[in-house]
């Protein structure tokens, strides 16, 4: 996929109607170069919000339904009001339509708890030309980092928000900085009970022979939208798929591993800690054709 | 302490000079009722920021130096630029001076990673009349909740940011909501290796006989500013103090326990899970006189 201009104007759509009630107009375009948020918005004072990042390929947003459903799931996990998903879908369409046509667009759907005391969520869609992911899609070096928590907390301790896509993301970015300090580009989290989980912004997919395995969401990981699309494509190709927990040694000894996300798509892991992993460029291209709706 | 009006105008001071460089003016008053933050500020897209909350009593901010030092420590833990602490202290003074005189003011010092791509932090001071904490200072019901991580992660896994006061605070608020579901008002976190840690927004202090004990910061808790003031006062009163890890049973069997923070001050725990704890109103008043600089 060709390099894209990064300086095209981003598009911002504010969605005051997201929580229902009487907001009028229910969404409107706004200037992303001007301040839009109060300092007392709970996203600014407490990281209280949820989000989704979508890949938009040749003007078509992938997996809109699953992303919106996951946003609603994350919102419920932090007791936000249920978002108006139809309204968000319309606002997303408006953002994509307002953006200059580009091969790859990244659209973020953001929803916060709103201004302190106001009891009405803040929401917006921000669409911009995607970064150039062509190098990443050839492969990345990844390190395994302890996530500190066991796979059981999603069941026992929901207040830890394992598997919720919240805007309290500082830990994920700290992990990515640690990866760079270790001469790597991304992270595979390992639970304190010794299972491979996910990346800070991605889902794990591992090939062993003809079988492709990802982490079950019960382990407290985010239910991946891109991995679901890719698994379906692999099944159509006659591959076997499964959702089960894997040990670090399983991934180190695998026939290939990927980190999947909506904008960057499937990125093969070229090196995991000190181990070189097999990379299959053709298979990666097949996954990414499916994940971008070009398959 | 008397009930205070909550509708006095809050004061906002933006501090564009916080990261050094050429920002001019280095801080200025702004309208908190108007939007001040871009949607691409990394605090809004990733919860990337650090903060401090100070209590200001009769116009005097308590523990300004320790709070600023802790802000710098948190900033370093997430690789933010070192904040200009003298500038922040001046901006804090300006915020307090601009606010109507009230007995208790809460001042927040906020610093984010700034707008995506801009490489300059965003910072502000927000001062407002404190909530009415008089009921809380008579006592609160507290439940113990699993924090999921062991006391060792601060040493082994710094990317988990244990002990950093970041704006990625959604988990702490989720824990407080869980407390309300359990008919309690606050939380005492317990580590996965079974030690009492701290509250989501407070420090633990436990009395056993004449000895007052708080959690050591090496366990991955925030170094409390208020507890330091209170421990000093207790030592002046001839009490013994210590910093050591305690088991839940130690606190349940104690002669009293408190959660300490800068605005709410020392709050006695009246009930921990199902156990009633002894409450000493006079001793609590002594702590709060010290913690508010009125001792």
Number of helices of chain A: 9
- Pairing-aware structural class of the strands and helices of chain A? alpha+beta
* Average predicted confidence as pLDDT of chain A: 95
Fraction in helix of chain A: 25-40%
Largest interface: A-B, 56 and 56 residues
Strand content of chain A: 25-35%
Alpha carbon gap, first and last residue of chain A: 14 Å
Main sheet of chain A, how many strands, which sense, barrel?
A: 9 strands, mixed
Quaternary structure annotation: homodimer
Would you mind describing this structure in some detail?
The first copy, chain A, is an alpha+beta fold. Helix content of chain A is 28%, strand content 27%. Chain A is built from nine helices and 15 strands. The first copy, chain A, has helices at residues 42-46, 64-77, 85-98, 134-138, 153-156, 170-181, 225-236, 248-252, 281-291; strands at residues 11-14, 28-30, 49-57, 60-61, 104-112, 122-129, 140-146, 186-190, 198-199, 202-208, 211-214, 240-243, 257-261, 265-272, 275-276. In chain A, strands 7, 8, 9, 10, 11, 12, 13, 14 and 15 form a nine-stranded mixed beta sheet that branches. In chain A, helix 7 packs across helix 9 (281-291). Chain A is globular, with a radius of gyration of 19 Å. The interface between A and B is large, with 56 and 56 residues.
């Amino acid at each position: 996929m060709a390099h894209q201009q990064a300086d095209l104007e981003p598009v911002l759509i504010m969605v005051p109607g997201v929580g229902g009630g009487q907001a009028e107009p229910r969404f409107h375009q706004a200037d992303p170069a001007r301040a839009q948020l109060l300092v007392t918005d709970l996203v600014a004072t407490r990281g209280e919000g949820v989000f989704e990042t979508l890949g938009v390929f040749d003007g078509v947003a992938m997996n809109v339904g699953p992303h919106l459903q996951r946003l609603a799931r994350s919102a419920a996990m932090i007791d936000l009001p249920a978002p108006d998903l139809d309204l968000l879908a319309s606002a997303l369409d408006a953002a994509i339509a307002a953006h200059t046509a580009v091969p790859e667009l990244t659209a973020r759907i953001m929803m916060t708890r709103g201004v302190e005391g106001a009891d009405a969520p803040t929401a917006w869609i921000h669409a911009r030309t995607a970064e150039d992911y062509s190098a990443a899609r050839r492969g990345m070096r990844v390190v395994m980092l302890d996530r500190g928590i066991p796979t059981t907390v999603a069941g026992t301790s929901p207040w830890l928000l394992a598997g919720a896509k919240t805007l309290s993301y500082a830990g994920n970015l700290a992990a990515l900085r640690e990866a760079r300090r270790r001469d790597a580009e991304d992270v595979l989290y390992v639970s304190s009970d010794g299972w491979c989980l996910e990346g800070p912004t991605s889902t794990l997919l591992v090939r062993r022979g003809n079988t492709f395995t990802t982490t079950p969401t019960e382990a407290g990981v985010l239910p991946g939208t891109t991995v679901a699309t890719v698994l379906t494509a692999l099944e159509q190709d006659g591959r076997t798929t499964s959702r089960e927990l894997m040990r670090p040694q399983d991934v180190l000894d695998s026939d290939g591993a990927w980190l999947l996300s909506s904008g960057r798509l499937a990125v093969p892991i070229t090196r995991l800690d000190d181990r070189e992993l097999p990379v299959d460029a053709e298979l990666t291209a097949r996954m990414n054709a499916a994940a971008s709706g070009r398959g």
